[in-house]
Amino acid sequence: QVQLVESEGGWLQSGGSLRLSCEASGSNVRISVMGWYRQAPGKQREFVAQITSGGDSKYAESVEGRFTVSRENDKNTVYLQMNSVKPEDSAVYFCNAVLPPLIAGLRPREYWGQGTQVTVFS
After folding, report:
1. Half-sphere exposure in the Cβ direction for 66 (13 Å, CA)
2. What DSSP string runs through 24-46?
3. Which residues contact 108 (CB under 8 A, 6 or more apart)?
4. Residue 23: what pLDDT?
5. pLDDT score at 27
6. Region class of 56: left (phi > 0), else alpha (psi between -120 and 50), else beta
7. Which residues of the chain have pLDDT under 50?
C-alpha cells in the first residue's frame, strides 16, 4: 500500500511564496505521475499540477506561471513551489500519485495524501 505524506501548509500573505512537498512510501515500482489537487470550501476538488517520472509537467490555467511542480524520483517526492499566491489559492492541497496497474490491462492505481491547508490572506 502506497502512502503519501504532505508537508504542512500554512498561512501566508497575498503575493507570498510557499513550497509544499509530498513523499511517497511503500512503492517498489516507479511512480508514473505525481501531482497536486486542491479543494476549497464548497467547491469540488480541482487539478493543480502534475509531473511524470520523465519530467513532463502540466498545470491548471489558474496557476500557470506562478506555481512550479518538480520531483525527485529517487526520493519518491514531489514538490509544489507556489509563488505570487492569491487569496483564491486558499484550499486544502492534496498530493496524488498514479502507479502502473499490478496486472497489465487493469486500471492504473491512484493514491491520495491526507491534504494540507493553505490559506492566503490579502
Report:
1. 17
2. EES-SS--SEEEEEEE-TTS--E
3. 32, 98, 99, 100, 101
4. 96
5. 83
6. beta
7. none
